From TrEMBL:
Pfam families: Aldedh. The keyword Oxidoreductase applies. GO terms for molecular function: oxidoreductase activity. Keywords: Oxidoreductase. The keyword 4Fe-4S does not apply. InterPro entries: Ald_DH/histidinol_DH (IPR016161), Ald_DH_N (IPR016162), Aldehyde_DH_dom (IPR015590). This is Aldehyde dehydrogenase family protein. Residues 22-255 form the Aldehyde dehydrogenase domain. The lineage of its organism: Bacteria, Bacillati, Actinomycetota, Thermoleophilia, Solirubrobacterales.
Length: 286
């Protein structure tokens, strides 16, 4: 009996709430730990970056204007959907990366927990970071955190899923829209997260996922004038100088978070770094 050929899946970019092929028409081969062909992934281009940032800017205003409670609901729904596909993601990690099932299950569980954790932060951020300022004058002065805007995320190669989630979750919780370049070595599960987000009430444009090569995507993304902040989680010293130079042109904030799961003492720091404090002064009568 003739053995049938396996049809390899061709993934798509997740841009503006839709799934799109790369404008360039190019794709890369995703391989497993043994070098075997597993799937095809789009090789993002400069035009794809521009489309992603445009979509993010379009979604940023609506997302920031949503109530903190609603943003928490959406993040919690994303966690629910991720949980529902957890075993599929565990099997993918075992097959593709040759990791132990227990380790893969722990990573997926940590990704779900991270989303739930930041979902709980959304309606508490204003109380923690904002407040009434004491002034020695007849004025009422108060400060409140606002979203920075569009955040570019350079996700680490590993862990591919948790590494992406722990960088996008605080950005989304703070009310920002995200354009993320996912793991270059293991891009499939991060793209699965895009498919999960597509059915998880995440508004169009709020989360955008790109695949491709950093040397082709860093310059158009980090140098884009409509990007307000950069999260560089690659851990690559050779890339840091390039990112800093690109960010300096438009005075972007660059965050390089310490390694960790993003839950605990470091959570508030990640959130605070992706917000701006708006202070208002109002005269009061005698």
């Amino acid at each position: 009996m003739t053995r049938r050929a396996v049809v390899a899946k061709t993934y798509k970019l997740y841009l503006g709430g839709a799934f799109a092929r790369s404008e360039s028409g190019r794709s890369d081969t995703a391989t497993d730990h043994a070098g075997e062909h597993v799937a095809n992934v789009p090789r993002g281009s400069r035009k794809d970056v521009r489309d992603a940032v445009k979509a993010a800017r379009g979604g940023a205003g609506r997302w920031a204007a949503a109530t903190a409670y609603n943003r928490g609901q959406v993040l919690y729904r994303l966690a629910e959907a991720l949980e529902s596909r957890s075993e599929e993601l565990v099997r993918a990690a075992v097959a593709q990366q040759d990791v132990a099932a227990a380790a893969a299950r722990a990573e997926v569980g940590a990704a779900v927990d991270t989303l739930v954790h930041y979902a709980g932060w959304t309606d508490k951020l204003a109380a923690v970071l904002g407040g009434i300022n004491p002034v020695a004058a007849p004025y009422l002065s108060f400060s409140a955190p606002e979203a920075t805007g569009v955040v570019a995320v350079l996700a680490p190669d590993a862990p591919d899923l948790l590494g992406l989630v722990r960088e996008i979750a605080p950005a989304l919780a703070a009310g920002n829209a995200v354009v993320a370049v996912v793991s270059r070595r293991w891009p499939l599960r991060p793209l699965d997260l895009g498919e999960i987000a597509g059915v998880s009430d995440v508004p169009a444009g709020v989360l955008n996922l790109l695949t491709g090569r950093l040397d082709e995507l860093v310059e158009p993304l980090c140098g884009h004038r409509d990007v307000n902040a950069i999260v560089d989680a690659t851990g690559r010293a050779d890339l840091a100088a390039t990112v800093d130079t690109l960010a300096a042109d438009t005075v972007k904030r660059v965050l390089r978070p310490a390694a960790g799961d993003g839950i605990g003492d470091g959570a508030l720091g990640r959130l605070e770094a992706l917000t701006e404090l708006k202070t208002a002064w109002h005269p009061i009568g005698a």
